[in-house]
Amino acid sequence: MSEKIQIFSDGACRGNPGPGGWGALLIFHDTQKEMYGGELETTNNRMELMAAIMAIEALTRPCEIIVTTDSKYVMNGITEWMNEWKKRNWKTASKKPVKNKDLWQRLDKACSLHAIEWCWVKGHSGHNENEHVDFLANKAIDELLI
């Protein structure tokens, strides 16, 4: 796996639940690809997950990836919590069903094909790519509400 791809992802929601959007930016060498989409009735966490899922699923062969997100939910879920959820048959430490299990399982499957490094960045802090994917997520909501 020699190809290194940078992915920036973000989700947004107006109301929680409410109309939501996700945005992603994939960067490979000098090439950039923007992606975004949304749902009329969703949550912020689901949109954060969808941004990462859609970006990773867009890759057509195994890659080395750096995913940057401003979601501690996504970051902690994929790097810290998921292995324990799987051991407990998708239950939390308090024996409750894992929220958004469908998307966590989809993200897990998408990640299994790649070597991924996860990075967290503070949202709305002036990080150029993070601000851009936030813009894309909100653009998705705007387009849904037209």
Write the layout of secondary structure elements.
Elements: E1 4-13, E2 18-28, E3 31-42, H1 44-57, E4 64-69, H2 72-87, H3 101-111, E5 115-120, H4 128-144
Parallel strand pairs: 1-4, 4-5
Antiparallel strand pairs: 1-2, 2-3
Helix pairs in contact: 1-3
Rg over alpha carbons:
15 Å
Topology as a string of helices (H) and strands (E):
EEEHEHHEH
Task: Kindly estimate the percentage of residues that lie in beta strands according to DSSP.
Answer: 25-35%
Strand order in the largest sheet: 3-2-1-4-5
Helix percentage range: 25-40%
Mean pLDDT: 96
- Please count the helical segments: 4
Q: How far is the first residue's CA from the last residue's CA?
A: 42 Å
Low-confidence stretches: none
| Global structural class | alpha/beta
Report the biggest beta sheet as strand number plus sense, adding barrel if it closes.
Answer: 5 strands, mixed
- Per DSSP E runs of 2 or more residues, the count of β-strands stands at 5
Q: What coarse outline follows from CA principal-axis ratios?
A: globular
